[in-house]
């Protein structure tokens, strides 16, 4: 196992992903807890599950600033290999007697790395060509390396881009091997893993890989029963399918129809899971209860809580009837890190995931996707034969259309929004955009405005269209949809949804706006 000490890097998760892709377990820890955690795991080869190597991540601070994150020097006497990346390299140099100062110029982007020496063998740069492009993102730089270190690579501006203390197996690099823009980044990380005495076993997601996951589930569930909450989203769908393949009808999937779903969603789910995969699905119609609980609820966070609570209540009641011992959840790796990493973060929205069911339910968890990223989950889904419309489905918030209706939620408003949203989906699906958009949807703004229809005064609803491009959920840009497309959507909405007489386009990025309106 590799321990990744996170000094506040934006790419810590990416480093961890790269390590996992090479077939090695990676645990992210904070600098404060690092030594204690390493002691609890033990060191290899003495301890079976022990730590083989340590990586120090980058970070936004400067090592010479007061209160910048640091780590006890004790870590260098554990006798296992350490790799410092960017801030990690600078900190390691400072702690071991080197020197760091503010760089002449901040450097972000590509740089040419020249490798001077490859060492005695078993070096970090083994098999890496001499001139490669690497990615830099730093302000400070090392100006004096500690005793026992040698320089192996330089760039035009950085004399210590790669440093190594081969005897102690301590390595430092100024650039970021984890980002795709760094050539041979994977090889550099793989070399470090080999230096740690570990074997590279690249994770290839193919049929036999998926069969192994299924076998593991079978072994751990045995003849017991399991339940899952199916939402139709890609994660819960893939998790349920895997478990279904492992234990067949011993898995019961509950689909709670809150009435807050988009048009056709429940029917589609039935079609795929019941008809195509012959899964045992119980559709619980809880529409009335959700609407009753939402009466008069206007404040967005309150709305989210009411929906989350109602969902859990219905699920608990239904789950009891199933006699299940296991609960299947579609947790994926980013969820694991997000919930662990958000300790000090401010709550912007209480995200409600259909998967996030209470621990007190006394069910053992099966989370077959806990180690995977979204694109890998999609690959697994594809191997299992899940149709593209589910695999490539847009993210849809747990609280559903309720967070796209500003103000109180009623049956009438839900119907207006469903009709408008369906038009948005249909028109976008006819273009080349779907693959490029993170999401595209309609919002019922709750604003009524004056219009004119057939010479008569009209006073109707305003629909907003939101279409976004994003790489992750943290930031986004509004999509620059062509006016012709927007006009088509707007014309169809005002013609086909009589309650609406105005359509506007949301042209705000995230931040400062969020993707969903509530
Ligand atoms: P925001 O609105 O926070 O949304 O910018 C970021 C992404 O998260 C989705 N979203 C949710 N997903 N449960 C979810 O599973 C939720 O409660 C929830 N709220 C928002 C949103 O659709 C967007 O893709």
Structure report:
The chain is α/β, with parallel strands linked by helices. It has 3 domains: 194 residues, 3-Layer(aba) Sandwich (Rossmann fold), CATH 3.40.50; 185 residues, 3-Layer(aba) Sandwich (Rossmann fold), CATH 3.40.50; 96 residues, GMP Synthetase, Chain A, domain 3 (2-Layer Sandwich). The protein has 14 helices and 18 strands. It has a 9-stranded mixed sheet, with helices on both faces. Strands 12-11-10-13-14 form a 5-stranded parallel sheet, with helices on both faces. Strand 16 and strand 17 form a beta hairpin. The chain is globular and about 85 Å long. It starts with a strand and ends in a 13-residue tail after the last strand. 39% of the residues are buried. About 1% of the residues have low confidence. It binds xanthosine-5'-monophosphate. Xanthosine-5'-monophosphate (XMP) binds next to loops.
- With strands numbered from the N-terminus, the spatial order across the biggest sheet is 2-1-3-4-9-8-7-5-6
Could you say which overall geometry the principal axes of the C-alpha atoms support?
Answer: globular
Oligomer: single chain
Text of the CATH class of the largest domain: Alpha Beta
CATH topology of the largest domain, anyone? Rossmann fold
Distance between the termini: 41 Å
Low-confidence stretches: 341-345
Q: What Rg is obtained from the alpha carbons, in whole angstroms? A: 27 Å
What count of structural domains? 3
Q: State the share of residues found in helices, binned by percent.
A: 25-40%
Structural class: alpha/beta
Mean pLDDT: 91
CATH superfamily of the largest domain: Class I glutamine amidotransferase (GATase) domain
Number of helices: 14
Number of distinct beta strands: 18
Summarize the main sheet: 9 strands, mixed
- DSSP strand content: 15-25%
């Amino acid at each position: 196992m590799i321990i990744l000490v996170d000094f506040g890097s934006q790419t810590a998760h990416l480093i961890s992903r790269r390590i996992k892709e090479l077939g090695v377990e990676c645990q992210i820890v904070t600098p404060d807890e690092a030594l204690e955690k390493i002691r609890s795991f033990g060191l290899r080869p003495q301890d079976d599950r022990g730590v083989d190597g340590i990586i120090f991540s980058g970070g936004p601070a400067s090592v010479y600033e007061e209160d910048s994150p640091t780590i006890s020097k004790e870590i260098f006497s554990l006798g296992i290999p350490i790799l410092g990346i960017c801030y990690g390299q600078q900190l390691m140099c400072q702690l071991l007697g080197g020197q760091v100062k503010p760089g002449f110029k901040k450097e972000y982007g590509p740089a040419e790395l020249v490798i001077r020496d490859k060492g005695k063998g078993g070096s970090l740069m083994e098999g890496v060509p001499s001139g490669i492009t690497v990615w830099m993102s730093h302000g400070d730089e090392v100006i004096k390396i500690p005793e026992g270190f040698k320089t192996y690579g330089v760039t035009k501006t950085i004399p210590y881009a790669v440093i190594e203390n081969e005897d102690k197996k301590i390595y430092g690099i100024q650039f970021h091997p984890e980002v795709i823009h760094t050539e041979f980044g994977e090889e550099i990380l793989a070399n470090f893993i080999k230096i740690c005495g570990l074997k590279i076993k690249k994770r290839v997601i193919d049929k036999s890989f998926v069969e192994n996951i299924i076998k593991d589930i079978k072994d751990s569930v045995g003849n017991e029963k399991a339940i899952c909450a199916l939402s139709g989203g890609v994660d819960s769908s893939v998790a349920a399918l895997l478990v279904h393949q492992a234990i067949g009808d011993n898995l019961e999937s509950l689909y709670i129809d809150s009435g807050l779903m988009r048009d056709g969603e429940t029917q589609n789910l039935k079609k795929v899971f019941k008809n195509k995969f012959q899964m045992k699905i119980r559709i619980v119609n809880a529409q009335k209860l959700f609407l009753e609980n939402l009466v008069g609820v206007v404040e967005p966070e309150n709305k989210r809580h009411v929906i989350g609570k109602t969902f859990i209540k219905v699920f608990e009641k239904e789950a009891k009837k199933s006699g299940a011992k296991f609960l299947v959840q579609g947790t994926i790796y980013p969820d694991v890190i997000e919930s662990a990493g958000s300790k000090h973060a401010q709550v912007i929205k209480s995200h409600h995931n259909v998967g996030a069911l209470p621990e007190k339910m006394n069910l053992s968890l099966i989370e077959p996707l806990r180690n995977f990223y979204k694109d890998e989950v999609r690959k697994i889904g594809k191997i299992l034969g899940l149709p593209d419309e589910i695999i490539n489905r847009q993210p849809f918030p747990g609280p559903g259309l309720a967070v796209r209706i500003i103000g109180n939620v009623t049956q009438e408003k839900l119907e207006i929004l469903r009709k408008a949203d369906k038009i948005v989906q249909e028109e976008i699906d006819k273009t080349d955009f779907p693959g490029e958009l993170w999401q595209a949807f309609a919002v019922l703004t709750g604003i009524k405005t004056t219009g004119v229809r057939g010479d008569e005064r009209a006073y109707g609803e305003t629909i907003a269209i939101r279409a976004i491009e994003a790489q992750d959920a943290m930031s986004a840009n509004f999509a620059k949809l062509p006016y012709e497309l927007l006009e088509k959507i707007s014309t169809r909405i005002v013609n086909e949804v009589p309650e609406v007489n105005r359509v506007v386009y949301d042209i705000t990025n995230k931040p400062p706006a969020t993707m969903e309106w509530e």
